[in-house]
Amino acid sequence: MYLDHSATTPLDKNVLEEMMPYLTNHFGNASALYSQGQKAKKALDSARFTIAENIDANLDEIIFTSGATESNNLVIKGVVENFENKNVDNNIKPIIISTNIEHASILEVLKNLESQKRVKLLFLEVDEYGIVSVENFKEILEKLQKEGAIKNLVLVSCMAVNNEIGTIQPVSRVGRICRKQNIIFHIDAVQAFGKIKTSVEDWKCDLMSLSAHKCYGPKGSGVLYVKEGTEMNAQIIGGGQERSYRAGTENIANIVGMVAAFKISEKQREEEQKTYEELQIFAKNYIEKNIDFALWNGVEIGEFRVKNNINFSFSNSEKNIEISGESLLMRLDLQRVSISLGSACSAGMVAESHVLRAIGRTKIEAKTGVRITFGRSTNKEDLEIALAKIVKAVHALKK
Question: What is the set of domains in the chain, with CATH numbers?
């Protein structure tokens, strides 16, 4: 019973079928002029067109990468380096505004640049539900304006959907403010595609990261949308592929698979979300009925939370209850139930969730936040069996 679809999803069999010709017969390099290369080039162009159409972008604004981590690194480092190359005064540091609930592929890059004294970081506040404060964003911009530092603001980066607690952020409101003030705006939309409408036009962003393996596509495949006119430096230099933003021979099979996965996800999105919401309500009610000390993390079920996500802390500081999250996961794994503690990219590193700490959970509660996420293989019967095992394991650990 796999209940960790926000970590990754299985490869859709129809996606694999689309990929197979490019893993076998159509193996050409898309940069080659002969027929094998041109077949690959045709598939590449078709893929670029389809993704652009799906997110309301232009054809030449789509850059293929190895995944969202690379896309996010390219955005942050590329924008900072562009500022450094243009600025003759080394004492002036570029300013980046982000949130303290971002994925590690954003936060760790920012912290790394800050440790090198290359950037000044400002973080937007989130409320008890994990939703970014647009008013706080306006206040920060006003302060920078008064200080005469707004010209050094090189980037605003905010995720569309939080990977741990599923909160949907007001990115369109942030985007409109950025567009009005000519500020580069980046969205990490990894957890959004296939769950909510993903549109660079509606969100008014200049940069956006996507990943295939979160919606039944192949791992190691991603997209970076780069609005025409957005300036940033390349991080991988070579043969000039992908508008010279990302050199290297394109992985045609993976790109074809990613596009197939995106098309299926977008086509089935509305129907799937209805099913997930039913499961979400059922799972939340089941846990709250059977574990009276469970703490619900994030916003309530509704328009500001994606439908396939629930997150509970089974440690409760007020009631002096502390349960080992690792022990819970191991017990459940032995019973063939897969859930996660926080983000998949933190697996193996047992630490408190920075997201749960940001919304006001104690250290103990933040260390035992359990994320359960549904997917196409999840049905109510299996889910009920899994939830019964979770409840039993939690009570056993409490004793």
Answer: 13-264 (3.40.640.10), 268-398 (3.90.1150.10)
